[in-house]
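Slack export, channel: ligand-projects

TW: morning all. Re-posting the request from yesterday since it got buried. We need the structure predicted with the small molecule present, not the apo form. The ligand is magnesium ion; the SMILES is in the block with the sequence. No rush, but it would help planning for next week.
GE: picking it up
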Amino acid sequence: MKGEVYRVAGPVVTIMGIKPKMYDVVHVGHEGLMGEVIRIEGDKATVQVYEDTSGIKPGEPVVNTGMSLSVELGPGLLESIYDGIQRPLKVLQEKMGDFISRGVTANGLDRERVWEFKATVSSGDSVKGGQTIGVVQETENVEHKIMVPPTVSGTVEEIKSGKFKVDETICVLTDGTEISMMQKWPVRMPRPVDKKFIPKRPLITGQRILDGLFPVAKGGTAAIPGPFGSGKTVTQQQLAKWSDTDIVVYIGCGERGNEMADVLNEFPELQDPKTGRPLMERTVLIANTSNMPVAAREASVYTGITIAEYYRDMGYDVSLMADSSSRWAEAMREISSRLEEMPGEEGYPAYLSARLSEFYERAGAVKSLAAEEGSITVIGAVSPPGGDFSEPVTQNTLRIVKVFWALDAKLAQRRHFPSIDWLTSYSLYTQGLSDWFAENVAPDWVPLRDNAMDLLQQESELQEIVQLVGSDALPEDQQLILEICRMLREYFLQQNAFHPVDTYCPFDKQYKLLKAISKYSDMAQASLEAGIPMKDILSVESKDDLAKVKFEENFDDALNVVMEKMDKEFAALGGN
Amino acid sequence: MTKEYKTITEIAGPLIFLEKTEPVGYGELVHINLPDGTTKRGQVLDTSADVVAVQVFEGTGGLNEESGVVFSGETIKLPVSKDMLGRILSGAGEPLDGGPRIVPEDRIDVNGASMNPYSRMPPEDFIQTGISTIDGTNTLVRGQKLPIFSGSGLPHNEIALQIARQAKVPGSTEDFAVVFAAMGITNEEAQYFMEDFEKTGALERAVVFLNLADDPAVERIITPRMALTAAEYLAYEHDMHVLVILTDITNYCEALRQMGAAREEVPGRRGYPGYMYTDLASLYERAGVIKGRKGSVTQFSILTMPGDDITHPIPDLSGYITEGQIVVSRELHMKGIYPPINVLPSLSRLMNSGIGEGKTRDDHKAVSDQMYAGYAEGRDLRGLVAIVGKEALSERDQRILEFADLFEDRFVRQGRDEDRSIEDTLQVGWDILSELPEALLTRIDNKYIEKYHPAHKSN
Ligand SMILES: Nc1ncnc2c1ncn2[C@@H]1O[C@H](COP(=O)(O)OP(=O)(O)O)[C@@H](O)[C@H]1O
Ligand SMILES: [Mg+2]
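GE: finished. pasting the full token output, ligand included:
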């Protein structure tokens, strides 16, 4: 059916003459710009267009595809970089050069590339939705499972191993259904699972303040709100680099082009600490930067989460970073205001909160339709205007997510990184993960950590007194607490993402560092009780040496040297 | 095609509405012929079979229903050529210097197209500005967008000019150019820039666009787009390294707000349009380096923070897009320190890729981090001293307090023509750091202390 353009106002176009369904994809104008129906009213429909609409005139033709906005799922997703509607940026560059013009379509998956498919079922087997029928080695360490689409089931009539392109038939069911390595899925609809679990395993990130104090579980949700320059992007990138997941989906949603270029540059060079392979081999990038069309920005998070669900269905642990979810919310606001919808708080549409929860709801640890256990951990950056957390996107997000990493501008200004405020941040997974930590890190990890948290809490109270009377007026045991806390902050919490060694800190090292600080604390306390002057306890050299062991390539040896020195120094002081 | 319509039905602020047109394209350039024989220009904001809305750049003064409207059939284009260098143009791209019209080599849509992130090359070439607080602690690199966040009455223009004069990539002799766009600044301020450009001979390598305070505010919306189009053309077609100075972004945003109000849009925070982030991004993101091309576009724009408030929507949304900010401080200015740059809220997000061994020096990052830590703590202590007195401070804290003073006096303060090399800057850094006890230098690897600390350095 053909219709025509009635009105154009920025990214929102009104069409008439066809009767589309909600969320149908239509092609608008002589150049066939891609858009999606977002409102139907009488004989007219409103379309958000994913490309620049300059020059489009009333009367230009409109064609309805009758399909919802979908992504292509199959081998070849990994190592790709897409825009918000899954067009590979590499292909766009080949087709139109260094600047993105419009009216160019590009398949999400390469139709020419040939993959080696190994069937794992045979004719006569009965298969159901989500079940694996064969595998493809997508990258060196990722085995891509070719699954029956969720809505299909039946008995295998014929299945072939061998070299295939993604859209070639590899399997035919007795009812004639043909299955290829590629399936399509509408992005706004969650892919079905059998059931969801309470997440029980931590996502190990190699970032001390995250793993140590505010851990997120695999299958959990976390938000990182913070003003500009406080470390949202660096934290997201650190998570994308060092988390112990199988697959990473990184969405640059309405943020900087150079940051995506950076990831593209770096990820092929960096090694996954688990497999030693280039990080890019486990990564899918989605880049719809701030200057790219705002409607495609709105779609980008859905494109990303659908790809994440697809790998989860294979039984993988996937983590998804959205930087920044606020830009997504703003895209909703822009479109909503063009539609002249009734604005809610701060101009955001009334459905903001519903959209946010629907999105985070797609995270989780699950049993797939084919009984595979997989998970999606969702970590969203939030960019509150003026750094004020009381605004709608932050508040609505915090009502949903289980982990809150609060970034603080003051910490960032003094270059305390990661600038996560240890007093206001929280994780609701801490308790649930305690058993795992006790078993897998050390039996005394949990008390060590709780003690550190406790001290930091005391420090903030003591600081208030210091502000009034100066630190020298405090009793000596309290002065010692301040010193221990300084060590906790500088030696343990601070972690430089750009230091070749310190950028990633294995759990074992986190434990030893904390243990070392605790040991100094114990010995200092004992000395103090034995009447050794505070000044001597503070000028123990090994305490200062401890500041730098985290940077040492050979951490264990360096730490041993320092701790032996500490023993000797305290022995010389007497009292221990 | 060049049909003239006399079907204006409504004039409201900078907008006109007309009916019964042939189909008109969204974003089309419009010419409006006034009864007195003058012509204005505008752009289509909303188009439908029934009514077309046009925003008029020179304002709607003198327009009436008798005015004729002609649709050009294309979006706004800037005629470009290498001969633009040395020219002074209006905010709408018309010559102001009495010289001939630009003979175009090309005509380019001023809105530009978004650079494919895949084509971007991460910026990493260190630009030495000769100013320690930038080079040492907030390093600028080629292809970066790093604005100055300032306040009214502060010397941001001097700083921008000093940078325009001194900026160089050590060891490089490549072609460079400056594109300067004034948006709503006063005639006097514009003169200040022009005189400096003329005096230093920079004008020959510059393209100047002037929209002054008494020029129409709506025109301001296209001025930076003209400037960036010229910059991209020189960078990507003529292999030049272009430094773009847009001043003042705040005036641009005010014009945007005015337009939004005229269109009766639902306003976002503090009355600014809800799409201001996206709009500003369409300017700021036009900086960068492209793989396989020689030129680059670096943006060093000026923004005055209303009420010195960094959380105001204009600096706030800017900071969310730009690759850092250089914050000019009233407090340091009052203390008589030039350039009064407060490094604490300042940031260069691309610093890490532009510094280090082979680029500046291996110890650069560590020295910078250490100075930040010391200065931040020292400033906190100043607050404390005001309450409890210096005597209540521990020995350690007193040293840090002194460091903050040294930092402002020796590292921040420098002459208006003092062009420090990066080595000079780092030397000043070590000189003042060496006044602190070594045990406090926890941010610096021992190997750098041995190599550069004045107490260890052999010779
Ligand atoms: N963990 C970290 N280690 C070192 N530097 C950091 C770290 N986190 C942030 N930074 C510094 O802070 C700057 C801003 O961080 P970024 O993540 O880009 O902020 P945001 O995304 O919140 O605006 C970075 O360019 C970097 O210099
Ligand atoms: Mg960011």
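GE: first-pass observations. Residues 2-67 of chain A form a domain with the Elongation Factor Tu (Ef-tu); domain 3 fold (CATH 2.40.30.20). The CA atoms of residues 101 and 516 of chain A lie 57 Å apart.
TW: perfect, thank you
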